[in-house]
């Protein structure tokens, strides 16, 4: 019984979530042989999400405004940041980080609640990594549809 609980908890570990994301982005990167084909391809995610959606019935928006190429570049950038660390953040990231830190300073508990703070951020990071993984998988499937591979029958 203990082994079943351990394997379930291990499945939901941050390490495994990062590995699933990195694997999805690596698969996307290997599948997308010509990234420039993603330029100006609209993000029609409703059609794509219905086939990718798993246990969640929410209609979350996995893509921001832009095209598939922008999402491709974003996912690869995040993967590189996870694997290599953030080497030289650009000015926009610094500004976003300053705003986020300012907002969090009003919400976060003090030093006495570090465990709660850790769990709050761990849950948030796990949620973001799961959404990014789905985004990479959706982009990969969409690319396959666009170039006519992947067993799609029209």
TrEMBL record:
Main location: cytoplasm
GO biological process entries: regulation of lipid biosynthetic process
Localization of this protein: Cytoplasm; Nucleus
InterPro entries: Lipogen_MT_Stabilize_sf, Spot_14
GO CC, one annotated term: nucleus
The entry's keywords: Cytoplasm, Nucleus
Family membership: Belongs to the SPOT14 family.
UniProt cross-references to PANTHER family, sorted A to Z: MID1-INTERACTING PROTEIN 1-B-RELATED, SPOT14 FAMILY MEMBER
UniProt name for this protein: Mid1-interacting protein 1
